[in-house]
Each structure stands twice: as C-alpha cells, then as structure tokens.
Write a structure and sequence with these properties.
It contains 23 helices and 2 strands. Helix 20 packs parallel to helix 23. The longest helix is centred in the middle third of the chain and has 24 residues. The chain starts with 5 loop residues before the first helix and ends in a 5-residue tail after the last helix.
Length: 452
C-alpha cells in the first residue's frame, strides 16, 4: 500500500480545503484548461492515501490548490512528483512554449524524468523539425512581458550568482573529466535547488537575471548530455534554454545555445540542419554580437559546410572566424564565451581540413590546438585524435598510431561517449592495407588496455 500523502494533506489544510471543496476546485481547474473531468470526494481520499492519478489530473490538483494558496505549485509540492515520470510524453521538452511559465514547468518535468531515467527520454533521438521550429521562433518571437513573480521565497541577485558559480564548477568538471562524470549531479542540483527559485518571489530585473542564469546552466546540462550520448535529452535542454533566453531578453546567450545545437547536429550527421542553426546563431543577435562569439558561430558553420563538401563556403567562414577573433578585447564578449580562443579555433580548423580531405593542412593547423594544461582534457583529446587521423590519411601509419595512443592516454580520465566515437572513427578510417601494418597491430593491442 502506498504511503499517505503528507504534502497534499498539509496543503489542503493550508488552503482550508475539505475533500469535496478540493474535488470541485480540481474540476474547475480542468475546465480552465479545456477538459471535462469527473472528480469527487472519494478521489481525494485515495490521493491522501498515496494514490497518484493518471494523465493531467496531478497538474489540475496542483493548479487548483495553487490558486487558493496564492503560489504556483509543482507536482513535487503536492507529493505527486512520480506522476511526471510515468506520464512523460515523447515530445516533452521539444516545444518552444508561448509563455515563460510553461517553460519552467517543462524544465522541472525534464529534470525529474531525467533523474528517474524515464525510458521515453533516455532512448529518445533528436527531432530535426524541433531544431528548426525553435530557432525560427526564437528569431521572430516578440519580447515577453515582465518576469515578476509573487512566490513565498524571496529571490535576489545573490541567488542568481550562486547558480552561475555552481554551473561554473560543473563546467570545469565537464572539460576535465567529460560529460558523463558529473552530469547527473548537475541535474540533481537544478531539480533540488534551482527549481524552487523559479517558483519564488522576484522583481522583473532579478527574474531576467535568474532566467538567463538557468538558461546558461541548461546549456551546460545539454552539452554534458550530448557528450554522454543522450542526444534526445540534450536537444530538449537546449530548446528550453533557448526559450529561457527569450524570456530574459538575452540574445547573445541564445546565439550560443543555437551554436551548441549546431555542434550536436554536425556530430549526428545532420549537416544541413547544423549549417542553418549556426547561421541562426549569428543572425539573431547580429546587432549586439561581439567578435569572439562571431568567430565561434562562423566556426560552427564551417564545420557543417566541410561535411557538406562546400569547400569554398567553409574557407570563407573560417577566414571570417579568424578575422573576427583577431578583433576581440578582454571585455568585448560575455564571460562564458572566453574559452573560445586561438587554440579552440585551431582545433575547429583542424576538424574542417580533415573533413575536406586536406590532411597536410589539418596536421599543420591542428598542431596549435592542444592546451596541455590538464584542465581541457576533452578538447585536447579531440584535437589529438584529429591530428592522428590527419597523419593516417597521409599514409603515415606509424605517426598516426603514435599520436592516437597519446590521445588514449589523455582519455583515461574522461567519461565521454563522443570520445569513444572518435576512437571508433579513427579505426574505421584506417585502410585495409594499413590494418596489416605492424604499427597498427601493435596499436590495437595496446589500445585495449585503455578505458576508451
């Protein structure tokens, strides 16, 4: 038998609800949402005993009680958080919602379902139409109204700073150990600590800062999910992050999120979508775009064009990226894009030249794409594998295998599905003739001792 629902009982007492009055309020809440339901006092008795109703009923209960007590309630607040997992739909998180309030509910449901490893999300694949719809709506949507909220807990700028600082700490872990290392811990933090902040009391100015900070954390959650091979969940976090930047009026961060979507689309082989997303990234905030962000967005476009075989378009995008990056100053762009520097751009150029079949240039440009600081292990791994492939493509099997082994050593600390994919692709690019070489046979034997 289920445990009694103490949270629901406490809220009924706070709102001075009887079983019958709550039933009537739930029916009214459903009617406001355009649904005709049946509910009476016996239903309420079952809920208090721990039963969780199906479908939209838990949300109607939360809406009904929330209207009476004067604050928006989540399913966790009424003791029915598990309902969000059992009722999770395949399209959860794919919509670019009309209202910011709908977005906060969606992200709460996503966090909860993610932590419960809801199968409908764990096994989900990205939806190309959702990328296109979200990017178009972000570009053309009018500004939202004020983000003032009247919840019980007062939220201020220090709360916003806590979110940013915590996300920065997770970002460091991500770069050093891969997305699979602390992804779940980040989602738990967002669900436990950040969700109540979104339901709090804050002014419009603080609300915009809060939504921007949560969007940045969602961008990181999407990136870590993508790196972990959870592409459907990653896409959903990116889309909801984009919607939050719309509410916050943060066009620059929105562009960075579209750029991340482009990066994921390229990895998944959706090259035309990737090019479109990269162009949306620099078109949307064009009037306020700084040189570093311009360079990063152009580099993402170049990555997609290289895979499409558009050599001229790729070269033009890379030239523009280099030109823009040369114009940056310490205060020309937001802090979160500061990671993108000459080393990062060299890595992107190396990827492009490899994919265009220009292996000698890939090896030359890629030589300057290694940080070697122990903090950017994943970036160094990717750049080193691209170097290895460049030498393999030139027929230098010994040199290529030697560099690939260095990459595997870097990968010992990494939990990253993308890194595993890079190793697979390296082995696939070795020609049948090269597979018979002693250097390759030695490499494959030694490679089996490494984590990746």
């Amino acid at each position: 038998m289920a445990d009694p629902n103490a949270r629901l009982a406490a809220l009924m007492q706070e709102g001075d609800f009887s079983h019958k009055s709550l039933a009537r309020a739930v029916v009214a809440a459903a009617a406001r949402s355009g649904e005709d339901i049946t509910c009476d006092h016996t239903y309420v008795s079952r809920w208090l005993k721990g039963a969780i109703p199906r479908g939209s009923m838990p949300q109607f209960i939360a809406d009904a009680i929330g209207q009476k007590v004067g604050r928006r309630l989540a399913l966790d607040d009424i003791g029915m958080g598990d309902a969000a997992v059992s009722s999770a739909q395949p399209d959860l998180g794919l919509e670019f919602a009309d209202r910011p309030e709908a977005t906060t509910k969606t992200v709460a449901d996503l966090w909860r379902a993610d932590l419960a490893e809801a199968e409908v999300l764990v096994r989900a694949q990205p939806d190309g139409a959702a990328w296109n719809t979200a990017s178009l709506r972000w570009i053309v949507a009018p500004p939202d109204g004020e983000l003032t909220r009247a919840g019980n807990r007062v939220i201020g700028t220090m709360d916003v700073e806590m979110i940013r600082s915590t996300a920065d700490a997770f970002s460091m872990l991500d770069g050093k150990f891969g997305g699979g290392h602390a992804r779940r811990a980040l989602i738990q933090y967002l669900h436990t600590d950040v969700r109540p902040m979104l339901d709090g009391k804050y002014s419009d100015a603080v609300g915009k800062q809060l939504y921007s900070a949560v969007a940045e954390a969602l961008l990181l959650a999407g990136g870590m999910s993508y790196d972990s091979g959870l592409h459907g969940i990653a896409q959903r976090y990116f889309i909801q992050a984009l919607r939050m930047t719309q509410a916050a009026g943060d066009r620059l961060l929105g562009g960075s999120i579209l750029s991340a979507m482009s990066h994921q689309a390229t990895f998944l082989g959706r090259y035309q979508d990737a090019a479109t997303l990269a162009r949306a990234a620099y078109t949307g905030p064009a009037s306020v775009l700084g040189p570093t962000m311009s360079a990063q967005f152009r580099a993402m476009e170049a990555r997609a064009l290289a895979h499409l075989g558009d050599e001229r378009g790729c070269d033009l995008a890379l030239v523009e990226a280099e030109r823009k990056l040369s114009q940056r100053t310490p205060d020309s762009d937001p802090p979160y894009i500061a990671y993108f520097d000459e080393v990062e751009l060299a890595a992107e150029i190396g990827h492009c030249f490899r994919d265009l079949g220009r292996s000698a240039e890939a090896a030359e440009r890629g030589a300057g794409s290694i940080f070697g600081d122990g903090l950017n292990n994943r970036s160094d791994f990717f750049a080193t594998m691209v170097q290895a492939e460049a030498y393999i493509n030139q027929g230098e099997i010994g040199r290529g295998c030697e560099i690939a082994k260095t990459a595997l050593q870097l990968g010992e600390e990494l939990k990253s599905a993308r890194c595993v994919q890079y190793v697979r692709e390296f082995c696939e690019r070795v020609s049948p003739m090269m597979r018979g070489a002693a250097e390759f046979r030695t490499f494959t034997e030694e490679a089996r001792t490494f984590r990746l």
